[in-house]
Amino acid sequence: MRKLIIFLIPFIIAGCVPRRTEVVRPSVPKSTVKQVEAKAADMSQAVMLNFKELEGYFLRNDVRLNNEVNFFVIDNDKNFDGILGQSRTMANVVRFVDLNKNIVAVIAMKPSLAVYEIKIIQTYVIENNIYIEYEVSQKYMPEVGFFISNMKTFEIQRPGKILNVSFVNADRTMTVLPFGRRTVGSPVNVDAMLRQYTGRYRGTIPAADGPGISMTLYLAGDYTYRLEQTYINNPARTFETYGKWMPSEDLSFFTLDYDKNAQEQISFYFIDRNTIEKLDINNERIASSPEFYRLKK
């Protein structure tokens, strides 16, 4: 018996093409991948993490799936809302996920004519790396062909500092993703951050009432700092502050005066070991012209 394959062909009107969202995932340096793979060989160091399948969530239609098996790690509300939607009905109450205590992992396959079973075998942490062992197996092929989106969403216990998340299949092949907002320029660990990313940074950033503010930041390895700020059009307006700094959980950025009120804090993103970038009050990169907010050694 032949299978009837149904294709949905949308009518495309000029100016009305649906927008596709590509979830850009920064790459991980090959050296880091090798270290992550090597650590997984010693299970004596592993600490098991609790995990639970989440129901009532779906992958948003504007998220692009480039691979046969795709992986997403969600650690904040903004990413959550951009990747997942909720199927709420009278009989289905979707459980709230506390992203301060847990992370969310999504395994999604390209739409196909087959039905697959996706399940997590175990999750664990070794040093600052989370490992998620999973299995994908084909269950059956429908008699009437139609495209099926196979995906599973899991809530995983959140340990302390996390640098990378690795998805490990049955063949022990790993897909390593940087955690949070990390990029290839982020410190690989705390020791590297203190050794390579501290020092003096200088630059000029925009000012609301003038041509700019000259900034010099001395970032010390004992988690103290000194910041000098001078208005270019009025050198008499010079401010010097001292205090403590602390890196983010994923070592992607750091905050001055983290122990004070949010209005007194200033955060900088690690571009690389020689460049930092001032963030806005919500610790987000300034989308308009981020290069204008950078300081260099």
Would you summarize the structure shown here?
The protein has 297 residues and is mainly beta. 8% of the residues lie in helices and 42% in strands. It has three helices and 19 strands.
Topology:
Layout: H1 30-40, E1 47-48, E2 51-54, E3 57-59, E4 69-74, H2 77-83, E5 84-86, E6 102-109, E7 115-126, E8 129-140, E9 151-157, E10 164-168, E11 174-178, H3 190-196, E12 199-207, E13 210-219, E14 224-231, E15 234-247, E16 253-256, E17 266-272, E18 275-278, E19 294-296
Low-pLDDT stretches are: 1-24
Give the helices and strands as they follow along the chain: HEEEEHEEEEEEEHEEEEEEEE
Q: Please tell me how large the radius of gyration is.
A: 23 Å
Widest sheet: strand order?
12-13-14-15-16-17-18-19
Number of strands: 19
Separation of termini? 70 Å
Could you explain the architecture of this structure?
With 297 residues, the chain is mainly beta. The protein contains 3 helices and 19 strands. The strands form 4 sheets. An 8-stranded antiparallel β-sheet has the order 12-13-14-15-16-17-18-19, with no helix packed on it. β10 and β11 (174-178) form a beta hairpin.
